[in-house]
Amino acid sequence: MHIEVLKSKIHRATVKSSNLNYIGSITIDEDLMEAANLIENERVHIYNINNGERFETYVIKGDRGTGMIGINGAAARKVVPGDLVIIVSYASMDFEEAKRFSPHIIFPDGDNRL
Question: pLDDT tens digit string along 91-109?
Fold first, then answer.
């Protein structure tokens, strides 16, 4: 049996940009990606703390050290710069493995720094 478990979480990141005309995705500072164990093109769920919106997209790598959290494409209508978001990804794994697994959870500051 396999179950879905929390793999990665960036808790309370600040949206720095929203770009409706970009192809799509979420841009995440590479430092944050590494700390949260996220990879480029990975599917993530975004939970907007300010307005309750929930959506999913995929990760693109942002410039290291910029603190960038940018929502792109159609999802840009669900956020405004300054909103706080929770970014999570899940993994499917064997039930016994899941019992031993520890997710990577990070808590960036207001400038999206570790």
Answer: 999 999 999 999 999 999 9
Architecture of the structural domain at 2-106: Beta Barrel (2.40)
Strands (E), 15-112: 17-19, 25-29, 43-48, 54-62, 69-72, 84-94, 104-106
Q: Is 25 a catalytic residue?
A: yes
Please tell me which residue in 58, 89, 92, 102 is annotated as part of the active site.
58
In the chain, domain spans: 2-106
pTM score of the predicted model: 0.96
Catalytically annotated residue among 25, 89, 92, 102: 25
* Burial letters 27-63, b for 16+ CB under 10 A, else e: bbbbbbbbbbbbeeeeebebebeeeeeebebebbbbe
Per-residue pLDDT tens over the stretch 40-95: 999 999 999 999 999 999 999 999 999 999 999 999 999 999 999 999 999 999 99
